Amino acid sequence: MGTPNHVSESPTGTPLSGATTNALTLPSTFSTLISATFAVLDLIFNL
User: What are the extents of the domains in the chain?
Assistant: First the structure.
């Protein structure tokens, strides 16, 4: 229990990994929204 808490509180790793996660999360959700929109449009035009 003590070791993961100590690692998560380390000043070097946590901000960097958090920023990397945010940078990777935003484009992935954006591309997911775009692909979902094209899928819906494809379904509409196929009907």
Answer: 10-46
